[in-house]
Amino acid sequence: MMRLPMFDLRAPRTTDEAARILAGEGANAMLLAGGTDLLPNMKRRQQVPRTLVSLRNIGTLKQSQFNPAGARLGACVTLTEIAEDPRFRNGYSALWQAAAQVATSHIRNMATLGGNICLDTRCSYYDQNYEWRKSISFCMKKDGEVCWTAPGSERCMAVSSTDTAPALIALGARVLLRSGAEVREVLLSDLYQNDGMNYMLRQPGEIVEEVRLPALHGWKSAYWKLRRRGSFDFPVMSVAAAARLSPAGVVEEARIVLGAVASRPLPADEAAKSLVGRPLTEETIAEAAAQAARLAKPLDNTDFDMSWRKKVTTAFVTYALRDLRGDDMTSVNLSLGRHIL
Ligand SMILES: Cc1cc2nc3c(=O)[nH]c(=O)nc-3n(C[C@H](O)[C@H](O)[C@H](O)COP(=O)(O)OP(=O)(O)OC[C@H]3O[C@@H](n4cnc5c(N)ncnc54)[C@H](O)[C@@H]3O)c2cc1C
Description:
Elements: E1 8-10, H1 15-25, E2 29-32, H2 38-43, E3 51-54, E4 64-67, E5 70-74, H3 79-84, H4 93-100, H5 105-110, H6 113-117, H7 130-135, H8 164-170, E6 174-179, E7 182-187, E8 207-214, E9 219-226, E10 237-245, E11 251-259, E12 266-267, H9 269-273, H10 282-295, H11 306-325, H12 330-336
Parallel strand pairs: 1-3, 2-3
Antiparallel strand pairs: 4-5, 5-8, 6-7, 6-8, 9-10, 10-11, 11-12
Helix pairs in contact: 4-8, 10-11
The structure holds flavin-adenine dinucleotide (FAD).
């Protein structure tokens, strides 16, 4: 049985207090939200903070507000709350679809939006217990020097496996980060970089406090996820697509974001741009799908064969765009075990 290492638990009641504790503890402390990723990582000794700063007693982080200008979601809103809230059923569909497809219902009851955005990157050489990793001299992400996925690489190739981040980026989300009395607001997309170790540009003492979504009247969005078991697994490739369509069905604005094919969610901006000013026909969809798939460079460090994952990227972008067009996706949903409707 894998046991947790010893740690001190702090349970502040405000973000100010949490930020003060983080500032005082420095690199020895980590934030604990639902704990569904961090605690298993601690058992595998991938992360061994001396102090955990729990966010669970901070009421303000659990609130959601909707107004004509958009939505503000506290970082500790759970994925179940998002998946079950009908206010996400219109322009924000990609977000509830992503939340509804994370792990299992038990995990979604604990898992938070902030924790999902900050989710550690994953890799077959890293997601192992301490003894297994020791037997291969560890990897550069923790305790070692080599990236076993690409031994010549100077950077870690672990994969971004968050479901909600691609969806949120496609929806134009911004995040509010607090450190001490300082608060900054950034585009969520600007918070990530393509490096499996330093995948977030979040400063060590910063707390993700809130996710802000713009009002998306006239937008449609969808999230499509490839995984082995339709009821459970992490994404091994995913697509979030969002578009504002004119009454005649012409694309006025669009975003496409690929998940789980790099160390960060990958915006496919050129592919999205190719749709603007045109209707979603089979031809324009095929063009955008081929363009988006060129960006995907999956490696041999998660489930499924990497060249197959690249190939099906085209199919998944196609599904997502047909979904936006309003096609009946029932048979594809059934064949993929996508039980979210
Ligand atoms: C069996 C299993 C299956 C899973 N399947 C999926 C899946 O399909 N898709 C998926 O996306 N995830 C999956 N997960 C991972 C995890 O459950 C989710 O990503 C979850 O949303 C993480 O949220 P949490 O609140 O539990 O985060 P925690 O585990 O509490 O924290 C995760 C990380 O985020 C940091 N953090 C948390 N909150 C904040 C904050 N407000 N500000 C700054 N940093 C913060 C923590 O310090 C930690 O580094 C799975 C996990 C398990 C165990």
